Amino acid sequence: MQKEQSIYVAGHRGMVGSAIIRKLQALGFGSILTRTREELDLCNSVAVRAFFEAEKPRIMVVAAAKVGGILVNHEKPVEFLLENLYIQNNLISSAYETGVEKLLFLGSSCIYPKFAPQPILESALLTGELEPTNEAYAIAKIAGIKLCQAYAREYGKNFISAMPTNLYGPNDNFDLHTSHVLPALIRKVHEARQKGENSIVLWGTGRPRREFLHVDDLASACVFLLENYDSEEIINVGYGEDVTICKLAETICEVVGFTGELDFDSSKPDGTPRKLLDLSRLISLGWKPRISLLEGIRSTYQWFLQNVPT
Ligand code: GFB
Q1: Does domain 7-172+211-240+275-292 have CATH number 3.40.120.10?
Q2: Which of 112, 137, 229, 239 is catalytic?
Q3: Once rounded to an integer, what is the mean pLDDT over residues 265-272?
């Protein structure tokens, strides 16, 4: 990958896309293409194709997606399935039609079966039933993986797919209804401390285990994979350790300085019991994460204080 080649990052305003842009800029990549939602509707196949024809990017990252936490995934399966299929089909097919040389598609660890053996190997894909709370999103992402593999097999394209674990960091969504657990707990704990409350409410039992990767580590892995990975086989990107949701909440309480209790809302789903990725494939290539969970929570809390009105 040369520094002057044009790189299109779809989804550059999101948490993942914005982190990839920061990383590319820091490394001196000069020709980065972006379009806002107002400028280009990624669900519109004609508009997307016209954009690719006009701009002819050489490299691209599919970081655009409709994403959300466990509750909104469960409530809005139509939107999560359909919008993600439209976005990725338009981007990946236009990339092929207009000669993109390298494409990185970002999936998710929820593509793996609900009860996959842990840590989850890439070979676990399609070996069992999915977690129902995010089945629609997972099926869209699996379709994206399969489309990239089909372009690789049928037309020899260098279209690769990475599977990130649960992510967090700057530009995350802190809305309590639609967010993932880590930003939701930062907001809940911060607001409880501000209001002098005695407890916060966790959804589910607090027993599920999750692995959290800071989005700046993901961005570094994405650039690493663009430069060093040319296989159609999917590749996991994670942190390598997981924690219970309770432990995550306790750590956030410590960082925020909240000493109240944890209560549990059992009307909310737990989701998959555990989701820890096996990182052997990525580590054997020479990449590893750098940002510890504690350090990442501290810096994300600072970002929240400076950027999110409460
Ligand atoms: O991060 P999260 O929404 O999604 O929830 P998943 C993780 C765990 O945290 C679940 C619990 O067991 C939740 O019940 N939890 C506790 C909370 N309190 C809260 C809270 O206030 N808000 C939220 N959101 N959770 C997502 C998928 O699954 O993982 C997506 O829905 C995506 O498709 C993403 O793949 C990576 O980890 O369960």
Answers
A1: no
A2: 137
A3: 96
